[in-house]
Task: structure prediction
Amino acid sequence: MSVRWPINSCIRLTAGLYLAVCLALVPKLGPAQTPSQGTLLLDNPPVWQSPNGSGLIASPIAILVNGSGQAIGNFSHYQTGTFLGSRGIRWEYGSGNAYELLDVNTNPYNGTYSSFAWSLNNNGQVAGSYTLIDTSSNNIGQQAARWDAGSTAPVNLGHLSNAVAYSEALAISDSGIAGGYSYVGTSASTDFGTRAVRWDANSTTAVELGNLGTSATGYTHSRAVAINNAGTLVGYANTWDSSGLSNEHRAVRWDAGSTTAIQLAMPTSTATNIFSEAYGITDSGTVFGSFTEYFSDGRQNFQGIHWDAAGNYTLLESPHPPATVDYVYLQSISDMNESGTGVGSSSEFDTNGLNVRDHALKWAPGTATPTVLNPLSISDSGYHYSQALTINEAGTVGGASAKFEPGSAFGYWHAVVWLPGGTIMDLNDLPIQSILGGSGTWTLERVQSIAADGWATGYGHYDEDGAGTNFYPGSTQWVGQLGFGGVVVSGPGPTMRWSDGRNWSTGTPALEIGRAIFAHTGLRQMILDRIVRTQSVDVESGEMSLDVGGQYLTVDERIRIHAGARLNLRTIFDPANDLVGFVHGNILNEGIFSPGNSPGLLNLNGDFENDGTLLFEIEGSGDGQYDQLWVRGEFDAGGTLRLFLNGYSPILGDEFDLFDWGTLNWQGMLFDFSSAPLSSGLTWDTSSFQSSGILRISSVPEPAGFGLVIVLVAGMTSRRRPRSRSAN
Result:
């Protein structure tokens, strides 16, 4: 975990001219026949009551999410228009609530305290600080704190000096080891600066970490700002010359279990002042941070840098030549994943000092030269602005990019992701819903953090009543599940929603560029609770019942039912109630396929190739009482169609309109009626099946028991116009 400090929400172009953050409407869904991106389900924002000016407004700092959909943020709290201080917030995704991280022994609405959430681990523990108030309502100081999973009450982690009661926890590992800093002093008026500290798991004792020297009077500053799961801390510490002066600091690492400060190497420089700082570390030990130079002629150089586990540095380059004005480079690295891929941004200036472009950058592992990620749009003057802020293990990058309207000099921040191949996607182009419903609408402005399992958080604007008169006055935070990349394998439990938990979060929530693989024993049932898009679906073993209902499932490649596996796939066709479900894509059946798990309908906008068994259930002869398959593309009719009578005895004249297709490619499909016996004197009539998709009950001259009837006609191709249907 690392603490990252997001940029301002406006980009400065010239004095008095800013790239504004503006509201925009989220596009509506297109026609059902058009493949759609998946719906992005967002947890509800913190409550804001417009009529009386009460509630929470987001601050764009320390916005993080973990692999379970828990997230943290920091907000300003107002009560009837009066500012009451800052509040750290934690979400438990799915609860619909954002919980304030509280102080102790105080009224959370009396304006006497603030709390801050700085770091979040994968177990839901939060590291931060809160204001300590004594029994006489005196402000004792800021206290390092830990909030355990599910609790809003802080655990006071303590500090180094009783005389200066001020400390903050800035990072926490999955095992609960925390790092931060504490002020030190022998009295309230004697200040010796700050010291980096560590709190061991379940401990409230601050352990002082080493520094890079002090002044003659013992004054210095050091801070630990990030930790990995091995317990290694990184941050910075002041350096001091032989005369006892300091105006610089250096990146520092403290190894697990050690208090020794290890200064990280950096390039030689002719600058007057040099600074380096570490603000992130991966579990493999790669450290990333910043390198800054201030020259005597006024030039300034800001560059990203990273160090491998052995301490060797790589100074990161920008994609454009150095500026001819104040800045040599203005560039930073924001995040790095476990493979060593880093992301960040750089600013480009013209000869007049105008910031004309901001580039979102990605550095491959061990390299200094970046790849420039495409912007969302470019202004008529050639300006564009993008920032890469976070990257997950699948290689998906999150951030922000300005969207310019044609002919306009103003752009508007939009939350975006860059897929591993580099494609940029505007999250505002997705259908966006709150998990609790309601009429509120979102404009997403930044993706600030993407967890390894696809959960994401950022900030934007929320209009609580949509087209109504209420208005959320500032930014607020959003939490949702993006689910880019990776392979999904079915998890435990007999019944699940498509968006359930971390089992599905790498490839199957809102917009999927992954593969959903169902490999299990027995029966599993899954319900689509949103519009879904994925690259492919494979049912490799077991039986899967997938209920699309009135949603849309888009599969870019195909759905494949492997030999020995079974898929029951159902949609709804009920236009009277505006419920029309679709599956967009192609299906290859090599196992057993049924359009429903009880009589149901599959509405397929694609091709269907059957090399296995189609199992159709019949409970009656009326609409909705037997399985139906509508194929809008080509139906390759091979394999076997097996009918199963479930408590129904067909009578003479019954018709079962089982299929519609755009084009029929007859491949000698077999008819298996062994589980659909008829009364004496009746027979299954397949004579019009290839022209109409209908099976009828006819009479025969003599009673006959039917077992397996084989119809084999090769090389016949016919076209059939789909008929209109009544509502089920």
Summary: Confidence is low (pLDDT under 50) at residues 1-36, 484-513, 704-728. Helices lie at 501-504, 689-692. Residues 334 and 512 are 25 Å apart (CA to CA).
